[in-house]
Amino acid sequence: MTNQEKPKKSGLKTLLRVFIVIVFLAFTVCVLSIAGKNFIRDDIKNKTNFIINNSNVTKDLKADVFIENGVVYVSKADINNFFDNTITYDEQYNQIITCSEKKVASLPIGKSEIEINSAITKINGSAKLVENEYYVPISELGDVYNIKVAYLEETNIVTVDSLDRAYSIATVGKDISIKYKPSTISRTMAKVEQGQTLVIANRSEYPVPEGWTRVRTPNGILGYAKTKDMGEVNKIREAIEKKAKIEGKISLVWDYYSEYAKAPDRTGTTIEGVNVVAPTSFRVKQAGKGELTSYVGEAGKKYFDWAHEKGYEVWPTLSNESMADTTKEILRDYKNREKMINKIVEYIVTYQLDGINIDFENMYENDKNYFSRFLIELEPRLNEIGAVLSVDVTAPDGSPNWSLCYDRYTIGKVADYIIFMGYDQYGVSSNKAGTTAGHDWVEVNITKFLGQEGVPAEKLVLGLPFYTRLWQEKDGKLVKEPGTVSMKRIEASIPSGTQKQWDENLKQYYVEYTKNGSTYKMWVEDETSFTAKLDLVSKYDLAGAAYWMKDMETQNIWNIISSKLFE
After folding, report:
1. Coil, helix or strand for 531?
2. What are phi and psi of 232, to 5 degrees?
3. Counting beta carbons within 10 angstroms of the beta carbon of residue 80, is it exposed (0 to 12), middle (13 to 18) or buried (19 or more)?
4. How far apart (Å, rounded) are the C-alpha atoms in residues 400 and 469?
């Protein structure tokens, strides 16, 4: 070997050693990385852990959960976040009001009682104010939220399981380890002995590789077990799926009667293309603080029987008769709202009705949230008896008492159906003549409901008129309030020889004529204009249509409705 070859071999050995060190360091970093992911502890210590449907939400709590005399307390803010985003503190009666799908509960501050759907019972603990934060005893609200709450003192964990969700368990056949991650090299979270039961805790946000199952131990610890070590999985309950209260499109017609006219006798008649009737059966009682007036009587009962025999659902209308002050008196007081809700439920049960149609108009703008509150508290009571809640609202972006008094987004979330009263674009209070329901105006407002108002298309019902208005002007000014002309009498009300002019934007005919020195104007509502607006239901895939009101229509209109909505 030459002297030159020795340095070369020495250099190669050095490079080899460096390479080995690099590989070792890379391997060490990789191992440490894996170990870090599988062994790092992120347990939440020194506070009660809160697990909802097998998800640990402790880090997301706005205030700590605490236990007092075995009762689990959760802040109102966290109830709002996880269980009821409508929960509220009622200052007038110093109580917390919370709702679920089928329950309305009020908890007086400092009293060990709860009122659920107007029935008062004693409970352990009470709603309370602690350091400027309201707390509710969630472990006493199982019936309200349909949940099971357990406090596991050994691990200081609270578990909450929704009883409408699927629930499966497995009884292990041997002692096994529960891992922090789905990996054999992950740290052990808990030991489970043979014969103990694990809750299957799979959730979409926690992907589980094949061969592993996410579980919850008897003492509430979440982790992973090898599937082959778990034994047979038993399904304790299936998920409860919510079913629509009514299938398919809604086709509703209002049928008017009042204290001055009894319910119409429709014996022997059929209304084609309709599956819901809404007779104007109820109204609020002026200054009645939640009391209602019924126009049902024997004629109304007969009407209900006729409708059910024909297979129609019956959603009678409850009107506030535009009494703003009476409406305010009811909406702003929980006890008055409760009285009215109890009466609605009583009527539905007594007359075996299928739902209710709330028609509150001309409310004060600053009562908007109170109206929403009324609906929030009404809906669970109706869900409990399987009844439909539909709510009539006007077009967005109008005057304070006519349009801005509705929170359409909230109504759209709470109610089963929100009915856009797509008429009176120019109504009796208008200071200029105009159409009752121009196609362009109706369509623009549908897009507002679906867009800026956030109302789901599957809940939006388009209300259409069976009438128009006849306007009288003199010297370019309105002489008096316009007269209402039913669709079936329009042709008879237009003088012979009057020319009709088609308006493509409105998609209706316009007529104008002079009589006795006055100019008369009418935007015609006929089968052509009605069909064009009805087509918007399919164009925007709306929930259906509604019509004001029965006996103002031409007979062929029902064939049009039937073909457009049900064929």
Report:
1. helix
2. -70, 135
3. middle
4. 24
135 neighbors 127 (Cβ within 8 angstroms): yes
Spatial contact of 63 and 133, defined as CB atoms under 8 Å apart? yes
Q: What is the CA radius of gyration of the chain?
A: 33
CA angle, corner 339, sides to 334 and 342, nearest 5? Answer: 120
Q: Is 249 exposed, middle or buried (0-12, 13-18, 19+ CB in 10 A)?
A: middle
CA distance 378 to 308: 24
The 3-state DSSP class for residue 87 equals coil
What's the pLDDT score for residue 205?
Answer: 86
Task: Write out the two tokens for 121.
Answer: 């019972």
State residue 5's pLDDT score: 52
Nearest 5°: phi and psi at 69?
55, 40
For 378, phi and psi rounded to 5 degrees? Answer: -80, -40
The encoded tokens of residue 387 equal 């009844």
Q: Are 478 and 427 spatial neighbours (Cβ–Cβ below 8 Å)? A: no
Q: For residues 70 and 53, what is the distance between their CA atoms, to the nearest angstrom?
A: 21
Kindly give the parts of the chain with pLDDT less than 50. Answer: 27-41
What separation in angstroms does the CA of 289 have from each of 72, 331, 357, 519? Answer: 37, 9, 20, 46
Helix (H, G, I), strand (E, B) or coil at 479: coil
How much is the pLDDT for 11?
Answer: 58
Name every residue whose Cβ is closer than 8 Å to that of residue 188 and which is 6 or more positions away in sequence: 177, 178, 179, 180
Of 412, 339, 352, 405, nearest to 378 by C-alpha is: 339
Predicted local confidence at residue 204, as pLDDT: 84
**The residue to which tokens 């976040």 are assigned:** 81
Interval 291-350: pLDDT, tens? 999 999 999 999 999 999 999 999 999 999 999 999 999 999 999 999 999 999 999 999
Element (DSSP H or E) covering residue 7: helix 5-39
For the residues of 482-525, what is the DSSP string, one character each? PEEEEGGGHHHHSPTTPPEEEETTTTEEEEEEEETTEEEEEE--
**Tokens for 118?**
């107007």
Residues 516-529: b if buried by 16+ CB within 10 A, e if exposed:
eeebbbbbbbbeeb
Which amino acid would we find at residue 226? K
For 126-161, letters b (16+ CB in 10 Å) and e give bbbeeeeebbbbbbbbeebbbbebebbeeebbbbbb
Q: In this structure, what DSSP letter does residue 52 have?
A: E
Q: Which two tokens stand for residue 114?
A: 């709860």
Distance CA 324, CA 316 (A): 21
Sorted by where each starts, the structural domains of the chain and their CATH numbers stand as 49-150 (3.30.457.10), 166-237 (2.30.30.40), 250-465+525-566 (3.20.20.80)
Q: How is residue 153 written in tokens?
A: 């003192």
CA angle in degrees (0–180, nearest 5) for 421-424-428: 140
305 burial class (0-12, 13-18, 19+ CB within 10 angstroms)? Answer: middle
